[in-house]
Amino acid sequence: MAIFAYIQDDINTDLLYPGKYTYLGTKPSDIKEHLLEDLDPTFKDRVKNGDIIIAGKNFGCGSSREQPNVGLKYVGIQAIIAKSFSRIFFRSATNQGLLLIELPAVVDAYKEGDFIEIDSKKGVVLLNNTQFNFPALPTEMQNILKAGGLLEYIKENLK
Amino acid sequence: MGETFVQKAFGNRIGKKLKVNEIVFLEPDYILTHDNTAAIIKKLDEVKSDIKVKYPDRLVIILDHVIPASSEKTALNHKEIREFVKKQGIKNFYDIGRGICHQVLPEEGFAKPAGIVVGSDSHTCTYGAFSCLGTGIDRTEAAGLWITGQTWFKVPESFKISLKGKFRKGVSAKDLILTIIGDLGADGANYVSVEFHGDSLQHLDIDSRMTIANMGVEMGAKFALFPPDDILKNHFKSRGWDFSIPVAWSDKDAEYSLIKEYELSEIVPCVSKPHAVDKYSSVKDLQGLFFEQYLIGTCTNGRISDIEVTSKILKGKKISANVRLLVLPASSEIYSEASRAGFLADLAEAGATILPPGCGPCLGAHQGVLAPGEKCLSTANRNFKGRMGCKDSEIYLASSETVAASALKGVLTDPREVL
Predict the structure, then answer these.
(1) What is the residue range of A48's domain?
(2) Which one-letter DSSP state was computed for residue B30?
(3) Of the residues B224, B241, B263, which one is the last residue of a structural domain?
(4) What mean pLDDT, rounded, does chain B reach?
(5) What are the Cα distances from residue B368, in Å, to B46, B127, B197, B325, B355?
(6) How far is residue B26 from each of residues A91, A93, B30, B153, B294, measured CA to CA in Å?
(7) What is the number of domains present in chain A?
(8) B214: DSSP letter
(9) How confident is the model at residue B361 (pLDDT cuts 50, 70, 90)?
(10) How far is A129 from chain B (nearest CA, A)?
(11) How many structural domains are present in chain B?
(12) How far apart are CA A23 and CA B235, in angstroms?
């Protein structure tokens, strides 16, 4: 499990997925090709299932484009831990079944080479040997996350 | 304790008083999608093949982002959308040429006081100019709304921004909102409903309000709201629409997590520097900076007042050699009005390139893409790295007055020098 640390504020949706690609490929595999292209061009080739991203405040600000979330879910990002998330991005991540954890203390304490383990059920992030708790999401969002995303949640409820 | 406008507007729909942070399920009046409709159609199929949209009359689909189609792929997207519109019996469809969704939706009368419009576009907050609760959602949520007709909303906390006095000559709504975002920061209003109050509102017309509300999301706002006052009432009457206000504007004793006041006469022409909207500078401090490209248009500043002031600055003159000026009226209505008034002829003669009503170069997908090392001075709402198609270029944001004056001189210029 690797940790991708982008400790800067206001990482916007153009950095996560440039606007010029938004009307081209829509399949997750197409999205992966340009994922984080202008932030870290090496990301897409290095990322593996279960990896974690750490970032500063207002992560995902800007456009309502969902390709960053779709792509990050597809490549297997376990969770993004940030100081805060932008509103539309936060909603969209839940809709894709991607776990976002708002924990400024973890971001502040993190140093390269540190170990992180997440227990989403208990709401706990373990940074080396220190435990940090994060609050549970509202029930409505938990239900969507549990189903694996909004469309899966709707599918279950259509039955 | 009184209530904010969002508490009233949400509460009115479910018949109870709402507290901040409470979560409610509501049916938006309209769900806006644009060229991204093609991708959303595919999501419907993922849920169930041949599924019918629950409320087809609540869909508003406007083709604006890459128009006319720039490639076989974008042409196919448009084609699939037209077929879907026919198949599902969607009447609120506006094909290419009608204009930018955030201009067209209000022109067609869908943005109403205390209405709820969600859009698969972050600048849906523009409708706050019409006291309408407009906010952005992603494509997946739009698909969900097409199927179920409803979604969850958190009742947001509110900010109160009071505006006093009048702008001085050469200063406009864009300078004000860039100043506010510079003060509050890119996340200063994250998840917040921002309300605009104060004596200045009587001087702020609909175009100005739309410019301000449009940029609410650039400080994270969920809504950016103006009151349903006489200016809005007169706007509705002038278009022959009924004006009804289901709930009154916020109470005087409503609770705000931030109250801030701006004196409009103290606002000066300003820019936002690369690569963040909250990087404020006065024009004076950067005077003389060279740009290869100048852009007037987009959902922030492509309205008739923007084209008019641009024409006023450039009529009978030529833009500087070695620079290019792109002008995009935001809708067919504005295009024809600007054309009939002679503004477009003035601009063409001054050396401007007039583009069709759409999003154009703003998102870097086509038209006016920048080359590495180039700089653009733009009236758009975003200057993120790579936004105009090239990560090695730079975008500065400014008012139409500043962009027009600067295109004339060929370098960043205070519009008060030429007005």
Answers:
(1) 3-158
(2) E
(3) B263
(4) 97
(5) 36, 27, 38, 10, 10
(6) 16, 20, 12, 7, 42
(7) 1
(8) H
(9) very high
(10) 32
(11) 2
(12) 35
Tokens of B303: 């309205």
pLDDT at A158 over 90: no
Are B149 and B168 in contact by the 8 Å Cβ rule? The answer is: no
In this predicted model, what pLDDT tens digit does every residue of B383-396 receive, in sequence order?
Answer: 999 999 999 999 99
**Chain A residues with at least one Cβ partner in B under 8 Å:** 9-10, 12-15, 18-20, 22-24, 26, 38, 57-58, 61-66, 69, 84, 86-88, 91-92, 95-96, 138, 140-141, 149-151, 154-155, 158
> What number is the average pLDDT over the span B354-360?
96
Nearest by CB to residue A150, choosing from B48, B65, B140, is B140
Radius of gyration of chain A (CA): 15
Contact in structure between B260 and B9 (CB atoms under 8 Å): no
Q: How confident is the model at residue A134 (pLDDT cuts 50, 70, 90)?
A: very high
ipTM, two decimals, is 0.95
Report CA torsion sign: A116, A55, A23, B128.
positive
The SS3 assignment for B158 reads strand
Structural domain span for residue B402: 271-417
CATH no. for residue B24?
3.30.499.10
Are both B211 and B124 inside the same structural domain?
Answer: yes
Examine the fold and report which residue of B263, B292, B309 is the final residue of a domain before the chain moves on.
Answer: B263
Separation of alpha carbons B240 and B133, rounded Å:
22
**CA-CA distance, B188 to B200, in Å (whole number)?**
23
Q: For testing the chain A interface, which of B25, B140, B219 should be mutated: the one with the most A CBs within 10 Å?
A: B140
Interface test with B, best of A22, A23, A156 (most B CBs within 10 A): A23
